[in-house]
Hints:
heterotrimer; B: 25% strand; C: 11 helices; 77% helix
Amino acid sequence: MAYKQRVTARRRKLYDQSVFVILTIVSTFAILVLGAVGGFLLLNAYPAFSQVDQWQFFTGTVWDPTNPIEPLYGMLPLLVATLVVSAISALIAIPIGLGATIYLSEIAHPRIRKIMKPAVEVLAGIPSVVLGFFALTVFAKFVWDLFYPAWRPDDYLNMFNGAVFLAIMMVPIMVSLSEDAMNSVPRSLKEASLALGMTRWETTWKVVIPAARPGIVAAIMLSIGRAVGETMVVVMATGSAPQLTWNPFSSGQPITSTIAIEMGEVAANTPHYYVLFELGLVLFVITFALNYVADWAMRKYSERYQ
Amino acid sequence: MSENIKVTGLNVWFDKNQALKDVSITIPKNEITAVIGPSGCGKSTFIRCINRMNDLVPKCKVTGRIEVDGKDIYDADVDVVEVRKRIGMVFQKPNPFPKSIFENIAYAPRIHGKDLDPSLQGTKVTKYTKKELAELVERSLRRAALWDEVKDRMEKSAYDLSGGQQQRLCIARTMAVDPEIILFDEPCSALDPIATAKIEDLLVDLKKDYTVVIVTHNMQQAARVADRTAFFYLGELIEFGETERIFEKPEQKLTEQYITGRMG
Amino acid sequence: MRRRTKERLFFMLFRGCAWAVGLALLIIVGYIVVLGIGVISWEFLTEFPRRGFTEGGIFPAIVGTLYLMALVMVIAVPIGVLTAVYISEYQGKSRFAGALRVAVNNLAGVPSIVYGLLGLGMLVFYLNWGFSLLASAMTLAFLVLPLVITASREAIQAVPSSLREASLALGTTKWQTIRHHVLPYSTPGILTGIILSLSRAAGETAPILLTGVVLTKTILPQDVWDTFMAMPFQLYALATRTVFEKTADFQYGTALVLLIMVVLMNLAAIVIRNRYREKYKW
């Protein structure tokens, strides 16, 4: 019968199946990498659980790992610095990012959009080390002298300084993700609102943004995740002083900086080395959680519009 | 009439929705069979079962038998690829590949080689020579009444053609594989009346060589081209018979209501 | 009328936001271009640094960054593209596919310094690759893998399913359809993603910082097991570990060369994508 497999067909089928097997095997790589991230963080942080007082690690207010008499591994100064820097950058980047998104997707003339969108993408492409360099050499001095002699930041390199450049990194992420969300709001919805005599602003505010909210939430979460995990900007711009302070105008040393700075100087397989991996684990958990929230928001979103 | 496709007890589910209910129908060789019915009645699902395109839909389950020349195409030892080679399909929206006109036609023959004849079982695939391929392309295009319109621009993109030309290109592309049955899934729904008329002429001409099954939402089209007509409603085959009889003396009340326009 | 005024006010505010973004880009790029352009010369691009980065050039750092990008491409591109093909064409309803999706999403959110820790813990010490070009490249490949996968997946899913059906209905196999249609039509989109990923790899500092980059080296890396110099690390190290006045020229020069490289790659990606949008209008 014509529809039965022929020899060539069988060979072809075998070929197709081997392609499938190869693709499956290759695809496991991504899962393995994620497993390796978690696994090797745990493996290398594990000795710290017994060699370093965990109560002190999570609640200690002093980070002084190189103290020759009694090294102190209190994480709070680092965690607080991470929080302060991320919070300020979020406060700057979220409104500006949203504003720019609304402008680009709802208001701007197509010609302007054609220039601005690549500009945002190029901004996203600038390496963080270049932003950190600019913050260190130019912006720090600008802020330092801005209101002098009336006011000066407590430290030349401070957390505000780093937060501004983290914000610059976050804005393009905000824009591209929330624009996707706003663009996927059905046009008919917008037109219906405009046809009811609402102004464009009212339509944007009362129709488009609520409909795009899950996507915007995801955008916010992912860009905060980026700020929490970003290293080079904070290493270069926030000054490296692990002190416990909420004052954004003094130096601080977020978790990422601590790993980057101290990993280069620490001997392998010492308590300090293990603790740095534990810090990595903390970071991983935070970003994992943020990612989870973003994923959850997006899933809700796709359910609603199916 | 000699039977070509014999469907018995065909049921189709998409996840938990049953799209076809116990459909049994025998489609004769070298005739045009039209499948009509209101939208959502399962007519597209039905013809997509005949060349197993529904296999591609996740969560789609098919039970029952579809015998083509006496062989159930859902049997375990049947090769789907072989089924689709022998049973071609033309889709609702023209879907030429974003390649040249020539490449659109030459693509499948080049892959299949000359081993299209089932009697050559097991032999190695022999490639077409360049000249043979050009001849095949020309033959297919002539058969689809498109050759004269495109012969001077074979290397141009198929996207430069009009909608009607694209659809005829898709028909030519299907014929280049030399199927015995060609399924048409509302082939004219995206076309204007002139392009539609050309395709209808072509359809009538094609039945000399092929068994044709056409799904259409346009009753006049069915009346114009089809030898037999099947009326589907809510996943069930309501009535099947010679077109003239279906349109003039429908036996079922539902069919009559549909044909006289008293139904959605 | 108050509604219209309100609308105008808000729109002005949003326009201000957008222009602030543009302005930030302009100032940062402009500043580095103005101060760096005078430094760049043939010598700066082709010579080794001398006298503590006050004379000579950044040749080994450029070469190191190029080596890194080449290795990252060799590792991450095939794996990333094939994974994308698997996810978008073969996944179906399997558990494995779901796990894969979750893994890719989460990998994209892992901070770069954490990738650095992975490289250090797994590649440098556990697998005993040592501080090396290969360890750094592999770490960066891990980092860009989710980017390559996501970009390729989007490009592949943008190919209309009607074309897949057309090909399958002609009696071709799934892989033939992917090989002859899906991949060719999505190539420009995949290419865009690859270029952006490589530009990301070129600019990343934290992962290589922990896995093998060095500030000075008198020869180019001899093989993949050797340490190497790279532009982003050189910029970081010079800016934070040397007296600014002495090495300022090298800092601005390095920043500018890196910036030019990355921006050019980004622009190339944008151009390719726009062309492709015009070519395949579906």
